[in-house]
Fold each of these.
Amino acid sequence: MASGELTIGFLPLVDACLPILAHEHGFAEDEGVKLSFVKDVSWATVLDRLLYGHTDAAHMLAPLAIATTLGLGRPAQKLVAPFVLGLNGNGVTLAKVLAEKIATPGAYANPVTLGAKLKVEAAERKAAGRKLRFGVVHRYSSHNHKLRYWLAASGIRPDEDVEILTVAPPFVADALASGEIDGACVGEPWNSLCVERDVGTIVLATAQIWRRGVEKVLAMREARLDELRPQTEGLIRAMRRAGKHFVDPENFALNARILARQSYLDADEKLIARAISDRLVLTHGANPVHFPDFMFQHSEAANFPWVSQAAWLYSQMVRWDQLSFDSSDAEKARQVFRPDIYRSALSDTGDDLPAANSKVEGSVTQLTQVGTQQGSITLSANSFFDGRTFDPEAVESYLDALP
Amino acid sequence: MKIAIVDESPARASIIEEGLVELDNREVFILTKREGLLAQIELIGPDIVLIDLGNPSRDVLEEYFAVSRALARPIAMFVDESDDAAIAASIDAGVSAYVVDGLSSNRIRPLLDLAVRRFNAFARLQSDLVEAKGKLAERELIDKAKRILMDSRRVTEPEAYGELRRKAMSSSKKIVDIAEAVVTAAELMGDN
């Protein structure tokens, strides 16, 4: 059994749940790991604390871990991600007036139809000299990447036809209320807060854009992970147990209550419960709508850090930062995801471990058996909404074919 | 040199500003509001931005810098990598700095060191304040206990204090703990 302490940085979001619940339910303690937490409100702060040793590990945007490793925006520092904290779990929320015009409030829209209507609206607003403005949580976030992916595939050029700006999650509702933005792509409970305050309407789940899109990771400095390997592997096992607990409907209310505490999310437990149960209220006063896998934290080896996911994120940085594709950067990006550590942590637990480290993303459009070290697991649909697939071995031709 | 200090705590911002007086040729701008922050930064065009580590606007600010870099106004996070110890010290003190490229390291270091000192000074002031508040609360509690003893035992104030003190010494506790026990007991007895 591992023995040691780990300090974990996080932002108040529902998908910080696994390390928090691993601590609260004693799973980490069972592994001999004592966890403590540091809460911040900016990703820049979470990152600084990680890089300068205030924390050992952090709840982090997967693209930010890669961007930091590549030295985009600040001097390069090598980060590694041995565990994916979850897939998707974000929503696209539009200002009420806009949602009423181009969507049906109270239901999830079809991303293709909504994209087409948004394109018309965006063109009108651009012609009127008031481009539509969208908030995302960070340049290097899956929110930014998925929003842009959807816009571009809908014929809307994200950098020319609309404006995309950074808004911290807790301030998204304010920004919608003040008219600073017309829409946002953000995690929970912040979409639900917009609905609760009646300043916005949820129109899409990011799972509709990429059914199994990678979201946050547990990030560490590579050197720190080497020093803390036993307790990190203990944490990984504890977070797998926490995930099993998290997805069990029996525990929804209890876990919502824990996450709502002031020291964690400091938010309304009722709103958190909506995300946990995949039952969001999409417009003020409406009934909740069940969208299975709105958040995807555990099943189908959801926490396995597929190298192909890292490669997709790198492709989107090249795409939107107007970088030129660099095969050594692509390799560095892939190496941020560390399936070897995930495997090592879970090798004796009987947990599902995929046989491969990489897969063609978006290729699974129906239930598919994939080989594991022990047998097989069934992966359900993993598709992108436009039907494209991403082959991690052919990033350049993928980029060439994108709009 | 134009220095922008971004801090939602006006008290801390002015303490830093005060510290910057010793520097020559500086123009200091203090920004304490989240609203309109980027517009103000744009207007000022600072050479260096000092911002408290946990400020909620940091991601917004970094995005602005990333975009300005695209507009050929390069901005480096902190100082260069060789100054890692200085950066670590500033993170520990709770301040981060964004430096416009071209400002030489020997001009940045004294500024950053100063900011770190002022941040630490502010942290000390805060803990002094917490301590002072704690002391005040202790004194009020002891006064209350004295009044209870004076009323119930018909003793003078020095005698009441003497009793609290004797009890504290004989039971190896602090006077404030004994006072708290007296006040709690009185409340329980409905005597207060």
Note: Helices of chain B lie at 10-19, 37-44, 58-70, 84-93, 105-153, 157-170, 175-188.
Amino acid sequence: MNAATETDRALVDRVAKGDRAAVRLLFMRHHARIYRFVARQTGSEMMADDIANEVFLELWKQAPGFEGRSEVSTWLLGIARFKALSMLRKKKEDWIDDDDAAQVPDAADTPEVVTMKEDKAAALRRFVDALAEEHRTVIDLAYYHGQSVSEIGEVLGIPVATVKTRMFYARKKLGEALKAAGYDRGWP
Amino acid sequence: MSAAEKMSRRDEMETLLPFYLNGSLEGAELEAVEEWLATDPAALAALGEAEAEFSGTAAANEAIRPPADALSRFTRALDAEAGPVRAPGQSWLAKVFGRVTAMPAGVAWAAAAALLALVIVQSFEQLGGRGNNFEVAGTQDDLAKLPFVLVKFKPDAKMADIATFLGQNGLKIAGGPTADGVFHLTIPASTAADYDKLVGLIAAQPFAEAVVQGRKPADGG
């Protein structure tokens, strides 16, 4: 047994007993992903820095009540999501305005001459970034954070059917964007 | 199967592909995707597209670099938030030792070790043992030179199990517990290999919560 193999849940148990080394270990394991998740939610790395810190302070406070019904990573992402939305509302930021975020490149604002110079990977990365927030988030949670359908539902507070619907449209948007850029993948 | 139904099934499969790739799919949905991949010529191409999305998403996320000093700033924030070290949930053993650790530092560990010996002997005898067969490191040992390891026992650890294990392996309690419940055990090893073997054995015990290596013997000693 050592720190590297101790499970997240065991570490949360230690945090619940007041073990600060355990919360620091969880911080080292999960901070980068939480930071990135919030940065992509808010569009602000400064906000991500503040919120990621708050997430782990919240972990410290809430650990005694953690019942282990979800993975620790899912729990932390849920806290991060809640805090990001709260801060955005409080500051009346408009970074996640759907109309703004929904600007998946189309023929008008992504001239083929630009996209054709990119390789497909770079184009995909750009298109993922340009997805509407609600679509990009399910893409991020599935592809980068390894979350299941039900876990994404838990993080976002939405039904699993909605997760699937969002995933469907997210991938459809990516397909359309790729097609517009000259990369026809045959679906949708 | 009509074209509409086929499209509907493909939509469903395309929706599930990201979860197939991240390994979270299970049950009927996993079987459906695997069956699709095995039977539809378009499926493998679709899987390749999903893999490209996977890579693109990872790259987009990894491009965001958290600040290098995040942990140190968090540690300061945690200390500010938490204040003095929180009293852990205490087992009966921890409560007993809590009284000992209130003693002057110079005598605390010796008293703690002696108390542990008493507790272990009592527990061992209650269980029908013939007496303790482990030792608490005494002043005759030059503790400063002995190989040692730091061990934290689980709150629900049974003292009889610990006593038996210590005795069987020639381990001695040289100090502790600290405020965090850590004991200092001397290791009867003359080589680094013996030391590693014993430390590994301690770490493998169900009553060991955490093990931190201390001084190791020089090889050939």
Note: Chain A touches chain B through 55 residues (CB under 8 Å).
